[in-house]
């Protein structure tokens, strides 16, 4: 009788051990409380809007609320540094963009107190989109070839606007200057919407803008678009040519992008859970359609290692342009 009871007890212990060891019953059943997603820009903007869409999708798949916290300031640097110093417990994440992770340190080496490759654990590249070179309607050029010829014949005559010194928009403008051997004069603005107003009002010649901001004005016939900043035609706007189609600008490529990062030292199993939830969300057909049609963003959902390699390549691409154009935001 005692032997039978002992065998039964051992069986029960074995079963309970298996249950406790299973993913759904782990001692640290991550996530066991809400996750905070830090957005480095103000509420209501384009970055914030995409972040909220992703937060809802992640929350559904992780079984926990993902709470957005906006920390605008210093072009996204304040929020990014905040996450770099956060506890690496998987409950504080960064909704990152190319400016904060690939450009900021190059143009503000004294101000930026984080290393995007050392102080963060990559999770997933969410999506990418091209920038566009736009022009006012009266400009006497109708395509990028004519525009380059016009600028070479009139060095320093034509101005281009960006959303500020040291932004990815300026980097693209200077990339065109360097690679195309032209001299557009940079005019920094504090807000991208003001650029569009001035282009439409013929108060500035050219500008670098996000695709989603420029497309409505272009489709209404209010501005010209000379090309997108991706290699080949963008899936998001296949009717637009690529700047790199012109042989002189074959090396001109840039995308704006959104990605998820955690503080360095975050447990690999938590990073994997976050990556899998992100990839699942971005593979959903409804989500893909929403990001493409509403936000002009091409979904990606890369692995952590792929995001790490992508970030390295982005920094390597921008560094020589920043140096050649002497871009310094400090």
Account of the 3D structure:
It is a single chain. The chain has 330 residues and is an alpha/beta fold. The protein has two domains: 32-129 and 255-324, Bordetella uptake gene, domain 1 (D-Maltodextrin-Binding Protein, domain 2), CATH 3.40.190.150; 130-249, 3-Layer(aba) Sandwich (D-Maltodextrin-Binding Protein, domain 2). It is built from eleven helices and ten strands. It has helices at residues 2-21, 46-62, 77-84, 98-107, 144-153, 168-180, 192-200, 211-219, 268-283, 285-295, 304-324, and strands at residues 35-39, 66-70, 92-97, 120-135, 159-162, 185-188, 206-210, 224-228, 255-263, 298-299. Strands 1, 2, 3, 4, 5, 6, 7, 8, 9 and 10 form a ten-stranded mixed sheet that branches. Helix 2 crosses helix 9 (268-283) and helix 6 (168-180) crosses helix 11. The relative contact order is 0.17.
Question: What brief labels describe this structure?
Answer:
2 domains, D-Maltodextrin-Binding Protein, domain 2, 10 strands, disordered N terminus, 44% helix, globular, 330 residues, alpha/beta, single chain
Gyration radius, in Å = 24 Å
Using the 3D structure, state the CATH architecture of the largest domain: 3-Layer(aba) Sandwich
Count all strands and give the number.
10
Shape from CA axes? globular
How many domains, in number, for the residues? 2
Mean pLDDT: 91
Instruction: Report how far the terminal alpha carbons are from each other.
Output: 82 Å
At the third CATH level, what is the topology name of the largest domain? Answer: D-Maltodextrin-Binding Protein, domain 2
- Helical content class: 40-55%
Q: Are there runs of 5+ residues with pLDDT below 50, and where?
A: 1-27
Per CATH, the superfamily of the largest domain is Bordetella uptake gene, domain 1
- Note the main sheet: 10 strands, mixed
Beta-strand portion reads 15-25%
Helical run tally: 11
Helix/strand-derived category reads: alpha/beta
Order of helices and strands: HEHEHEHEHEHEHEHEEHHEH
Level-1 CATH class name of the largest domain: Alpha Beta
């Amino acid at each position: 009788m005692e032997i039978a009871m002992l065998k039964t007890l051992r069986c029960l212990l074995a079963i309970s051990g298996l249950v406790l060891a299973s993913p759904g019953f782990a001692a640290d059943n991550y996530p066991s409380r809400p996750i905070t997603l830090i957005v480095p820009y103000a509420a209501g903007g384009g970055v914030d809007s995409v972040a909220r869409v992703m937060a809802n999708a992640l929350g559904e798949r992780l079984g926990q609320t993902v709470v957005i916290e906006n920390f605008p300031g210093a072009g996204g640097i304040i929020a990014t540094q905040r996450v770099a110093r956060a506890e690496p417990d998987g409950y504080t994440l960064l909704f990152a963009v190319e400016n904060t992770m690939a450009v900021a340190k190059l143009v503000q080496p004294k101000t930026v107190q984080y290393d995007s490759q050392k102080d963060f654990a990559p999770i997933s590249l969410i999506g990418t989109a091209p920038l566009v070179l736009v022009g006012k309607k009266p400009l006497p050029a109708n395509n990028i070839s004519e525009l380059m010829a016009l600028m070479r014949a009139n060095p320093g005559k034509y101005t281009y606007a960006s959303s500020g010194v040291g932004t990815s928009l300026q980097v693209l403008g200077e990339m065109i200057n360097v690679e195309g051997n032209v001299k557009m004069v940079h005019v920094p603005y504090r807000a991208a919407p003001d650029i569009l107003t001035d282009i439409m009002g013929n108060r500035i010649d050219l500008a670098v803008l996000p695709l989603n901001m420029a497309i409505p004005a272009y489709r209404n016939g209010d501005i010209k678009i000379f090309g997108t900043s991706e290699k080949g035609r963008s899936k998001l706007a296949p009717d637009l040519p690529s700047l790199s189609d012109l042989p002189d600008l074959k090396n001109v490529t840039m995308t704006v992008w959104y990605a998820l990062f955690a503080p360095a030292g975050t447990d690999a199993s938590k990073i994997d859970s976050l990556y899998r939830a992100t990839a699942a969300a971005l593979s959903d057909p409804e989500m893909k359609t929403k990001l493409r049609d509403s936000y002009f963003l091409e979904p990606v959902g890369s692995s952590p290692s792929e995001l790490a390699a992508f970030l390295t390549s982005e920094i390597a691409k921008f560094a020589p342009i920043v140096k050649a154009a002497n871009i310094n935001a400090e």
